[in-house]
Every structure is written in C-alpha cells, then in structure tokens.
Design brief:
There is one protein chain. The protein folds into two domains: 73 residues, Orthogonal Bundle (Multidrug-efflux Transporter Regulator, Chain: A, Domain 2), CATH 1.10.1660; 252 residues, Rossmann fold, CATH 3.40.50. Helices cover 38% and strands 16% of the residues. The protein has 16 helices and eleven strands. A hairpin with a 2-residue loop joins strand 2 and strand 3. Helix 1 crosses helix 2 and helix 4 crosses helix 14. The chain is globular, with a radius of gyration of 20 Å. The structure holds adenosine-5'-diphosphate and magnesium ion.
C-alpha cells in the first residue's frame, strides 16, 4: 500500500494555491512524486506539510448496533487518510471477527489482542501494536475477543476504566486513535465509548425504525448518565448513499430534518462507491490510486470534518491550532 496525498488536495485542505504547495515541496526539499502529471506525497512529507496543525490526540469510536453499515470501512479509510494529513494514527479493533485486521493483511494469531492485555497485565499495549503503514499502527483482533464482554462482567472490572487505562497513556504517542466495534452494545463497546472523545455512528439508507440509531444513541446516553459522565459527542454519517435511489434520498432527508439527529449529522455523506469494495478486497485503499473517485472525495471530506481540518482558512479554526504563526508562511 502506498497511500497518496495529491498536491491539489493538500492545497484545498490548507486553503492555498497548488503553486504554493509545489513551492513548499521544493523549498523545503520535501519528498514528492508524480503520476500521470499529478504531484503527490506520502506520510513523511505530510508530517512536515501539516506540522502547524498539530492538535491534541482525539479518541473516536465507531459504533452501531447494526452490522454492514461501514464501521470497519470508515475506520480503515479514515485512518489512512488521516496519516496523509500528517497524523500518527492507531486503530484498535475490538470486533472479534477481525475484519479490519484481515483487511490490512495481518494474521492476529501472531500478536496479542485486547483480551490478552486485560487478562495479563504484563502484556503492554505499547508492545502489542503492529505497524501496517507509515504513520498507522493497529491493535489487531481475533475470535478470542468474543469473550471480552463476559470477561469484563465476571471480573467486575470498572467499565469506565477497563479500556481507558490502556488507551489514555497512548494519547501522547498518537494524534488520532480510532476504535472499531462489533455490531452489538455489550460491555466492551461501553468500555470503548467511555474511553472516547467522540462517537461516530455510521448508518446506511434504510427504513428509519430499522437503522439501529435509536437504540444505540439511547444506550450511550444512558451509560454516560449511569457513570455520572458528561454526554459524549455523537455524530452520524450516512454511508453508501446513492442519489439515484429513493431510499437514499429519503433517509438523508429524514435524518437532516430529524428533531434530534439533524444536528448530529456530519455535513456530507459517503457515496456508494465500487472502488471502496474493490480496494478493500485487494488489501489496498482508495488513496493508493491518484484517480478521483467518490470514495476518495467523501472520505477526505469526512476525515477533515472529524479532525476539524475542513476550513483551515477560517479564523475560527486557525485560532485553535498550536502555532498559527506558521500558517502565515503559506
Ligand atoms: N461507501 C461504500 N461503498 C461501497 N461499499 C461499501 C461502502 N462502505 C462499506 N462498503 C462495503 O460494505 C460492506 C460492509 O462494510 P463494513 O465496513 O464491513 O461494515 P461494518 O463494519 O459496519 O459491519 C463491506 O463489504 C464494505 O466493503
Ligand atoms: Mg466491522
């Protein structure tokens, strides 16, 4: 895998001209390449290009009680896209099916997984992550994680501490930590939610009563209440959107008009895109190619919004970054 950030995309993110990006690449002697006349760069250059936009680490959990809505897909593609914005990313898979782990070509039998870390305090999470790409590590998962819920319940480990105590020490080593959950609402998912700064609920076009959003949102709110915790921000992303299908248009319109969910929506949606499926099968990513695809565009927009890098030109956002002085250089 060689995920690529196009110069033209970097220009859009940073709110500068493509010529300004080319100038930066040359004047700072940053590594870049050309494919079909399109200039692109990879993680090492991205770190330098986006250095002024360093933010505190954010832990985001992908949850929905329903399967097949794109939790693992969005987790994976967002993680890869974030590395191309210079972020050091960790993905923690707690789904025992290990789909995300396998999609990176990793055999989880070779490594410790979350249940091993909980069961044996001598196994450290820092020694258990596997590097899959420049800037991207994963804590893999396998079927042994299917007993996580029972383990947490039987050992009576406090839910708000069980995962948090493992993840919090990693915040200084990563810019972004994404947790991919199985399609349920058991103890391990509660532990993941109570560890996170934000919950992302992916959903697909369908009859609203069948979306799984109601039960997931209610359960997360109840859990925060029970643990005397402030409400964790939750955001909904509509995935597999197809403008030609009535179901898609109706679901999107129902969601943005919804009295509770309207304001929880990401500003866009992720279109149904055959390249997403094609690249996943090849254990690759939509960002490997330099071609413009719906998947590439939409995941880019989604990642930028998630990282609050969607409007870097606006003063509001710029004021949040640690070193706004450097931004003036563009
Ligand atoms: N936007 C999309 N366009 C096309 N296929 C998609 C898209 N999002 C997900 N998929 C496909 O849908 C299937 C289910 O996605 P997955 O991420 O495994 O869901 P979940 O993790 O919620 O169970 C996978 O085969 C994936 O490749
Ligand atoms: Mg999944």
């Amino acid at each position: 895998m060689h995920p690529k950030m196009l110069a033209i995309e970097a220009a859009d993110i940073l709110g500068v001209s493509v010529q300004a990006i080319h100038k930066q690449l040359k004047s700072k002697k940053l590594a870049y390449n050309k494919l079909r006349n399109r200039v692109y760069f990879e993680y090492e250059t991205a770190i330098k290009m986006f250095a002024p936009y360093k933010q505190p680490c954010k832990v985001v959990v992908f949850v929905l009680v329903k399967g097949g809505v794109g939790k693992s897909t969005l987790c994976r593609e967002t993680a890869i896209r974030a590395t191309l914005m210079g972020k050091k990313v960790l993905v923690i898979e707690i789904d025992h099916q290990g789909n995300l782990t396998k999609s990176f070509g990793i055999n989880a039998n070779d490594y410790p997984v979350l249940i091993d870390l909980l069961d044996d305090s001598l196994i450290k999470i820092t020694n258990s992550t596997v590097n899959v790409l420049p800037g991207l590590d994963i804590l893999p998962s396998r079927y042994d994680n299917s007993v996580l819920d029972n383990f947490i319940m039987l050992k009576q480990v406090p839910l708000q501490k069980v995962l948090k105590s493992k993840v919090d020490p990693l915040r200084s080593a990563y810019d972004l930590i994404l947790i991919d959950c199985p399609p349920s609402l058991g103890q391990s998912i509660s532990a993941a939610v109570l560890t996170s700064d934000m919950v992302v609920l992916p959903t697909t076009p369908c009859d609203f009563s069948d979306s799984g959003i109601d039960i997931t949102v209610n359960e997360i709110n109840r859990m925060c209440n029970d643990h005397d915790m402030p409400k964790i921000p939750m955001k909904i992303i509509l995935n597999q959107f197809d403008n030609r299908e009535k179901d898609s248009r109706d679901t999107y319109s129902d969601l943005i008009k919804h009295h509770q969910y309207g304001e929880m929506m990401f500003s866009g949606y992720i279109r149904k895109c055959k390249e997403i499926e094609k690249y996943r099968r090849r254990k690759s990513t939509v960002f490997d190619s330099t071609a413009s695809t719906a998947g590439r565009e939409d995941i880019d927009t989604f990642t930028r919004e998630l990282l609050e890098m969607h409007n870097l030109k606006s003063n509001h956002i710029v004021s949040h970054f640690t070193n706004p002085e450097m931004i003036k250089g563009y």
